[in-house]
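Hi P.,

Sorry for the delay on this. The queue was packed all week, but I finally got your sequence through. Input first:
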Amino acid sequence: MKEEFHRTAVHCILGFPNVIGCVDGTHIPIRAPSENEGDYVNRKSIHSINVQVICDAAHIITNVEATWPGSVRDSQIYRESPVSHRIERGHFDGYLLGDRGYPCRSTLLTPYPDPEPGPQQHFNVAHCRTRAQVEMTIGLLKARFQCLRHLRVTPERACDIIVACVVLHNIATIRGEQHPALQIEADEDPIPAADMQDGSAVRGVVCHNHFTV
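Then the structure:
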């Protein structure tokens, strides 16, 4: 699935300007594959596909990468994804929000690792509450499709099923179908990625302009 962002996806939540979406990774367990088995073992020692999800404020999944084995970090998946290249080249006017598992870049804002009292703390609180959109979206996806709790198929087949579930989730969301009982999983603390200097500068400007009381 290679859906791209639309102008209508640009939104402002809790003070953040021009947020085009929130990004996160989620692991979909699979049975141990016969080839390259070790590549699929994640940090919890479970075989999985690490799926990158980008969503908007309406819980529509605007982009999904479902081809990476569980041992690959979120930051690498984002760095090598086509959507990141398009965002970096300025095809979209706005920011993604991600957790500390991603590097802070000029187009991908992450929280301050050690926020100072005042604007930086306000930035982090608003960032966390806004980024909760993607955690809720992933929770809705998994609640709608119980098969995603464990796919007993090959990695290639698992990727196809994951993308199909995302498409059906979007259709259900657009049609206003009733939400299933939501269960948000508690993720491990992400391994912090190194900040990019230009990203830190942009984060500082956003913090100063929008979170200074």
